[in-house]
Every structure is written in structure tokens, then in C-alpha cells.
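**User:** Hello, beginner here. Are you able to go through the protein record under this note? It all follows right here:
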Amino acid sequence: MKRRITFNSPVVLSFVFISFCVMVINYFTAGLSNQLLFETYHSPLNHPMTYVRFFTHVLGHNGWTHYINNMMYLLLLGPMLEEKYGSRAIIEVILITGLMAGLVNWLLFPNVALCGASSVVFAFILMTSFTSFKEGEIPLTVILVAVIFIGQQVYEGLFLQDNISNMAHIVGGIVGAIAGYTLNKKE
């Protein structure tokens, strides 16, 4: 029997490959490409790139470790979610998560540049906890993931100075929880 490699999760795999290309370009431009295209920060609202970066910041990463950690989670969680909810829903979650994290960062953290797919990773984590959700029930796993996740992010945001945007994680988790609940309710 012949085995073949399949492109089983087109949105997630495309996201991983595009982010890889962005990392390579950022490496060769010594960070300039991230600054211009793949970081969101408090730039003027009359600058068209401000709006583009609200979405594209999820593709940029500030180093290979950052990239690899995010992509591993996306590759673990994304294919299952894409199979369950479809490619269109996953694209929408990625876009909404990017936009919401970008807007919150722009509004609340004017001195912080934000890049990376962490918000999307946390959206996928919370979405995954809803995969066995049934009408009229609240799975204990959803409650535990939400409490542990939010508790960890609040603690780290208050007590650690680690250059990690806990706000983006929380925003992604909220988007993922809403998406997971909404998409499961439709089934």
C-alpha cells in the first residue's frame, strides 16, 4: 500500500508556511519587515498600514523560539478544529483574533509593539475545550481551562516582567471561547 502526504489542514498549514516566510524575511531585513508589516503598535489612525497591521501582526514573530512554540500549538490544535468547523470558520477566528488583539493593544498599550500568533494559539486552546460541548451542558473541562488560563494570564501580567503580552492571550482566549460556544451551538 502506498502512502502519500496530504495537505490535511489548508488554513493552518498555510498560516504556518506564511509565518515561516515572514520569519525568514524578518531575519534578512534585521527586523525591519516586522516593524513595517508584522507588528501592531500605536501608529496614527490616518496611516493605512495601521489597519493592515491589526491583522498581519499574527504572522510576525520576534525570534525562532517564539515562532516554533506558537506553530507547534497551532499544528497540534488547528487541524482538529479545521476539520470540525471548516476552513472558513478558522480563517474568521484568526482574523477576528488578530483584529481584537491589535485593537486592544493599540488602545491600552501605546508604547508596546505586538507581534506573534499567541492570541490565535489561545483562541484555539479555548475553542478546543468546547469541542464536546452539548446544548444545555457546560463541560467541566471548559470551566477548568478558562479558570486556569485566565488565572495564569492575570498572575503573569501582574507579577512577571517577561515581555509576553498576556493581554493578547486573554483576548485570544475570549475570542476562542465565544467562537467555540457559538460554533458548537450551531451544530
